[in-house]
Amino acid sequence: MKRPLRGIIAAVAIVGLGASIAACSSSDAPSTGSVDAGADYSGPDVTITFWNGWTGGAAPTIVPQLVKKFNDEHPTITVKEQAIEWADIASKMPLAIKSGKGPDVAVLHGDDIATYGAQGLLLDAGDVVKNLGYSADDFPGGLLDNAQYKGVQYGVPWSVTPLGLYVNNDVLESAGLSTTDLPTDAASYTAALDALKKAGVQGEWVDGFVFTGTFEFESLLWQFGGDLFNDDVSKATFNSKAGVQALTWMRDLVDKGYSPANVAQDGNFNALVGGKTAFNWNGVWQTTNEALQSVDHQAVAVPQIGTQQAVWSSSTHWVFPANKGQDPNKSAAAAAFVKWMNDNSLGWADTGELPAQNSIREDPALLTAHPELKVFLDELDYAHYETVAPGITTAVAEITTAVNEAVLGKKSPQDALDDAAKKADAILQQNAATYGG
């Protein structure tokens, strides 16, 4: 199955990035320096390297096409694109930057930027943002700030990927339910699940994996008014009352017979495609999944189960590596490349990800080509993005452990979250010692 971002390689990426820390800790991190460049490059002929982790789906076709078009339009700049598995980027890029062999421009996830920034592996992109004419208003709320660490702007937003509710219309109709009046809150969602259960259908298969159990839990946590960590990310708070409410709601799907127990990885999405379930909380990337195209389906906003609207979303950002001996002309050319790519990112929606730049998402041509994306665009008004802190992915991995244990009935939601929070707190303390508070 096509997966965006990390997919099931998340754990591998965490380990790989952690391994790089020992070789490139904050104690010996290089001075980051900065990029002072704009959209127009006037330097000598240069060849720049571009690393990204898009190795599946439509991206391996679209990215080279965009790069070729850029190269054709910019005779003094040659971009050489290299698609590498996300886990390999996490394990290889830090050491490559230290040795001066990293890319001139790359794409990272929002939860990786602080880790790279704390190690001195990225150039300050604040002047790039200013010179390119960007401000916070050019991207979804809070996204530009999510590419900062300790007041330094390290990234320029590229894409966002919110969660949505996928619906199998045939399954709903078989249970006598409307395909136009779809659930929007806890009461209407429960009513639909009850009606499906009476018809012999388990309406939402809940799983204990990152894709998509963790994303559902985080969405629910925020909906109940909670948060993953405290303000300075020194302590886990996902075991709060809101967290217990969120995870209990997920476990109740099994206890009340709305979901089978022990759903396999991707089992919920496969069940939706196979006509065995009606609802699946999943990311915008599934809009381009070929398996779904033969199914009468639609996507709507995730229901508001808690007291407020909220939905999980990931993000990716352009970054400028601080390679040892980095050529400032190459960094300047990379800045021009980033601006051009953002301005020409309308076709990026073909990959199942949303362009981060507001002017591109608001172009009527996007919905003309992809009307199914409207619900995901609307959700960005209340989307939550990754936590910004160095080494945070290791702490967040404990959340998935808690979700898995509770959904499988191995621990109560409270115990699972409390145990995970203790481990996450220890990781946060270690991160503070490794990267500096």
Kindly list the characteristics that best describe this protein.
437 residues; alpha/beta; D-Maltodextrin-Binding Protein, domain 2; nine-stranded mixed sheet; two-stranded antiparallel sheet; 11 strands
Architecture overview:
The model is unreliable at 1-31 (pLDDT under 50). The chain starts with 9 loop residues before the first helix and ends with a helix. It is α/β, with parallel strands linked by helices and 437 residues long. Strands 1, 2, 3, 6, 7, 8, 9, 10 and 11 form a 9-stranded mixed sheet that branches. Helix 2 links the parallel strand 1 and strand 2. It is 41% helix and 14% strand. The protein is built from 16 helices and 11 strands. It has 2 domains: 33-160 and 314-370, Periplasmic binding protein-like II (D-Maltodextrin-Binding Protein, domain 2, 3-Layer(aba) Sandwich), CATH 3.40.190.10; 162-313 and 388-435, Periplasmic binding protein-like II (D-Maltodextrin-Binding Protein, domain 2), CATH 3.40.190.
Summarize the structure.
The chain has helices at residues 10-23, 59-73, 86-98, 113-118, 126-131, 169-174, 186-198, 210-223, 241-255, 267-273, 328-343, 358-361, 364-369, 374-379, 392-407, 413-435; strands at 46-52, 77-83, 105-109, 148-149, 152-153, 155-168, 279-283, 297-300, 311-319, 354-355, 383-384. By secondary structure, it is α/β, with parallel strands linked by helices.
Distance between the termini: 40 Å
- The H-and-E topology, N to C, reads as HEHEHEHHEEEHHHHHEEEHEHHHEHH
Unreliable segments of 5+ consecutive residues? 1-31
SS-based class: alpha/beta
**Assembly context of the chains:** single chain
Query: What is the third-level CATH name, the topology of the largest domain?
Result: D-Maltodextrin-Binding Protein, domain 2
CATH superfamily of the largest domain: Periplasmic binding protein-like II
